[in-house]
Write a structure and sequence with these properties.
single chain, about 230 residues, mainly alpha, Cathepsin B, Chain A, 2 domains, 3-stranded antiparallel beta sheet, two-stranded parallel sheet, 7 helices, cytoplasm, Peptidase_C19_UCH
Length: about 230
Amino acid sequence: QATDSFPPLRNEAAVHVLRGRMKGIQGHCNSCYMDAALFSLFSCTSVLDSMLFKPFPLCDRNVQSILRDEIVNPLRKTGFVRARSVMHLREQLTEKGQCSSFTNAEKDPEEFLNLIMHQILGIEPLLKLQSGGRKEQDCYCYQIFMDKQEDLVVPDVQQLVEHSFLSSNLKLVEIPSCFIIQMPRFGKEYKMFSKIIPSLELDITDLLLDSPRECCLCGDVATLECS
């Protein structure tokens, strides 16, 4: 455990602390979905650090302290989290979520995020989406759904998000404080792409609802959008 708080790892420090053998979050008993999610959310960014400290309305302080002291702080301090710490969190999620399979089965990352953010910590949804002018939908992460694109062999995240939003006729109602995206590359049986290139920056200009944009022909403010 590490009860002192450590900032997220950046630049050379991230490389120094996280690279090498016995680094990252130790896997055990189908924990990969949770290991990958926790690493992505906390190792090198502080955007969700409120989950570790803020007393939300429904906040379970025991789960919050396990997440902070047994997982996030050791990861940022030494670059390693033992499987026992993640199992401790999984046991608490099983108890709070009335789902016995959290300790032994592979789950969808979205199910884990919804449970810990909504039911256990009581965080407000991070995303507001609208589909085809219908009612707004609130959610905590966005899972990319798309048909197989023959021209996308090794896509980057920017391409996948744009294709997915276009095919689902989706728009972001507002700029999200945090945009958690689940790639179409998970599960044991099927992976749509052999590799996905991380986009270090994500341009959401064309994904925003009613956002003023430039006409690609005349340069004035656009009045029509062609998919």
